Fold this protein.
Amino acid sequence: MSASSRNRILVGVGVTATCLLAACDSLRSPPPQFPEQTGQPGSAQPVPGQSAPGQPAQTPARPARQFHLSPASTALVAQAHKAANSGDFGLAAATVERAMRIEPDNPLLWIELGGVRLTAGDFSQANSMGRKALSLATGDPRAQSSAWHLIADSLRALGRNEEAADADRRADALAPR
Amino acid sequence: MLIGALYWIYLDRVVTRQFEGRRWTLPAQIYAAPLELYAGLGLSQSDLEHELQRLQYRRVDRVQHSGTYREQGSRIDIALRAARFADESRPAGLLSVTTESSGIQSLRDSSGHDVPIIRLEPLLIGSIFPIHGEDRIVVTPQEVPPLLPAALIAVEDRNFEHHHGIDPMGIIRAMWVDVRAGQIEQGGSTLTQQLVKSYFLNPRQTLGRKLREAAMAISLEAHFGKADIMNAYINEIFLGQDGARAIHGFGLASEFYFGKPLSELDLSEVALLVAVVRGPSYYDPRRHPDRVRLRRDLVLKLMAERGIVRASDAQAAEKRPVGVTPRAAGAYYPAYLDFVRRTLRRDYRNEDLTEAGLRIYTSLEPRAQDQAERALEGELARLDHVRKQPAAERLQGSVVVTSPHSGDVIAIVGGRDVGYDGFNRALDARRPMGSLVKPFIYLTALESGRYNAATIIQDAPLTIRLANGQLWQPQNFTRQTNGPVPLVRALAESLNLATVGLGLDLGLPKIAQTLQRFGLPTPPAQVPAMLLGAVDVTPLEAAQMYNGLANGGFQTPLRAVRAVISEDGKAIRAFPLKVTPVATPENIYELNRMLEQVMVKGTGKSARTLLPANLVVAGKSGTSSDLRDDWFAGFSGSHLTVVWVGYDDNRSTGFTGSSGALPVWARVMAGLGTSSWSAPMPESLAETWVSYQSGAQVDASCAEDAVPIAVPVGTQLPVQPGCGNNGVDSIVKRAGEWLRDIMH
C-alpha cells in the first residue's frame, strides 16, 4: 500500500470519528430545540419564506437545524466503530445499516456508512453516500460540511483531485475548520 | 458360510463408514428480518405481545424459561431465547419492556440497566430442501428435553439400553400386545433398527431387507454408544409431510407442529411428537387430531407406568388439547421465498443451498407482509363482489413493499392465494406499465431545464404518423381535452394528450434513457405509445423504478437477502447497501412535489379517506389500454408500495388504477404505520403557490385552486391578476364562489 493511499484511509477514519463525536454531543446535552424545518411537503398553508406573487421565487429564510443520532443509533454507531477498528468492515457496515433502518433520513448515518466504505476502499460508494447525506442534510451546515468532506476524500481517492479540492472548499465554507 | 461372513464384513464397513462421517444434509434456513426494539419505537404493548406470539413465546405468570413472557401493567418481562443473527449471536436473557401510549418507553436488562437497542430473534420463514424433499433442523443432545429419549424408549423400545441392536423379546412382546389389542399398537423394531431403516435403506419391505436391517443394527450397536444412536435417531426420523417437503428429525418437527424450539416443549407436546413417530400420515396432528390425541394419551400412560413422569402429571397432560399451530409453523410466504431463492441461485449451486446448512437472512417484515396480504385479498374480494363476478373469474393482484432508503424488499404478495406456491405475479407478470411511465417523462422535462411544474403545455387533440405509416390518435381517459394546463395538473390528472405532446417535444430517446436509468431492465421500444406506458414491467421492476423516486434520486438495488451465513457462523456473502445517484435531488424534489398533488387533487385523491389524516404521500396511478392492468405506485417517507390488479388472462378489468389498485395501495400503506414523505427541499429550490388551472403564481390565502410547487430559485412565473394584493377583490370572488356553491 502506498503512503498516499494509507493517508486517504486515515482521512476516512477521521470523518467517521467526527460523526461519533457529534453523536456524543447530543447525548451529553439535550438536543437544541430548533423549530421544524419549513417548506416541508404537505404543508397545507403557505409558509414563511414563500415567494410573494409577482416576485421571482426566492430562497426562503430557513431556520438552521442540527441533526443528531438517537440513543439507539448512537449505540449502534459505537459498535460499528469497534468493528471497523478491528478491521471487520462488513460487520461495521451491517451495524450502521441497522441504525439506518431506524433513522433512514439521518444524514449522519449516511456519512458513517460512507466512512466505512471509504476505509474499506469502496471509494465510489463512499462518494455516493456522501451525496445522499448531502441531499438529506439541508439546513444543517455541520452535517453538510461533513458530507462534503466525505465526498472530497472519496474523490481524492478516486484521483479526481480538482473536484476533491472544490468539495473541500465547500466543506470549509460551511463549517470552517 | 464364507459368503455370509464376507457380506457381514461388508455391511459392517458400510455402517461404520457412513455413520462415523455422518452429516445430515442441512437445507438452508431462511429467516425474516428481526424486529428491532428501542425506546421511541411506535409499537404498542399489544403489538409487542402479538410479535412475541408470532415467535411462539408463551405467556406465563412467572418468567423462568426462555420463550416465555409476562405482563405487569405497562411492562412486559420477556425471557428472550438465545438467537443467532447475521452479524452476531446473543445468549438468552431477560428483557423488560415498558410501553406508553406512543410506543416503547424503555428497555431494561435483568440487572436494571438501560438497553439502547435489542432485537427479537428472527422468524424462521422457510428452508431450501433438496429435490428428494428431506428437510430438517439438527439438534444437539443439550437441546433435547430429557423427556423425549425417555418417552421414545418407553413407547418404541423398552429394552433400548440393554439390547445389542435387535430385541427378540421385544418382538414377542409386541406380537402379544398386538394380538390382544386386535391391532398394531407396538412394533417389534428397536430404535436402532428404525434408525438403520431410515438412514441406510430404501423403504422396500422384503425379507432380505429385514435381515440386512437387523445385521446393520447389530453392527451399529457394536461400534457406537447408546447416546450417539439416540441422538442420531432424534435427528433422522421422519415425522411428517408438508407438500413436497419431508419433515425429518424432532428439531424440525417441533418447529413444524408447534412453531418453537424442541427445548421448549412441555410434556403433552413431547408425547404428541412421540405419538406421531408411529405413523406420521395416519397420526397427522393437523388432519387427524382425535386419532393422534388417543395415541398421545397412550404415550403419556406408558410414560407414567414406566415411572418417567408422575401419574398426576400425565393425567394433567392428557387434558391438554393437541395444540399444534394451524398451518405449517409460523408463516408461509411462498412469493417472498421464491424471490429469495432466485436471488441465491445466481450465486450458489443447488447443493450448497440444500445441504450445507446455510442461514439466509432476509428483509421480510412479517407485519408488513401480513398487512399486504390482507389488504389485497380484502379489496379484491370487495371488487369481485361489486362486479358480481362468477367465482371462476376472480381478479388477481400483487403487491410489493420496500423501504426505499435501504432498498429492502419487506413484503411480496404474488397473488390472492397467498399460501399457494404458484404463479408469482410480483416477479413474473410482465404487463404494460400504463401511466406509471409518466413521472419519468415529467422528470425528463424538468431535467431539460425548459420546464418547471407551472409550465403550460397543451392538452389538445394529436394525430401522429407512425413509422409504419398508420395514424395514431391518442385519447384522454375522459375523452375530453383541457387546453392549456400546467405540468403539475397534467401529471396529477394523468392527461394523456398533454403528456404525449410533452414527450414528443423531449424526444423518445431521452425518455427511454430516463426509464433505464431508473432500472427498467431492457431498452423500451421507442414508439410514441411508449409515452402512454406501452412498456412491459413486472410489479417488482416497477417497484425498483419508483424506489429511485422515493429515495430522492438514488438508485438502490432492491434486495431480499441481507446476508448468507455458513453453518459455523461465518458471513460468506453479504448484500451491502449500495446507492447510485440517477437524478439530481433538485429535479426529484420538484417531481415528488407534483406526485404529492396526485394524491391531493389528482387521480390518487380518493385514497385520502383510507389513509391516516395528515399523512403526506406521493404516487401515481396507471391503467393500460382497455383497462387490462390497474397499477398504483406510491410512497411515504418510509415505505414504497406498488400494487397491480388485473386478470391472468389479460381481460379488461373495467376499472382504472384509481378504482382498482388504489384502494389496495391505500390499505397497505394505512396498515404499515408509515411516516410522512418529508424530504428536505434543496436550497436551490423555492416553494411557491400556483393556480392549479392556469399555472400562474397566486397568493395561497386567497386562491381556491392554489397548489404548492417547488421551482428553482429565481424562477419568474406569470402572476394571476385580481388575486393576492387586492383584498376586496378576493372577498368578492369568494362570496361569488360561495353563492355558486349554494346554487348548485
Notes: Chain B touches chain A through 67 residues (CB under 8 Å). The two ends of chain B are 109 Å apart (CA to CA). Chain B has a mean pLDDT of 88. The CA atoms of residues 145 and 263 of chain B lie 5 Å apart.
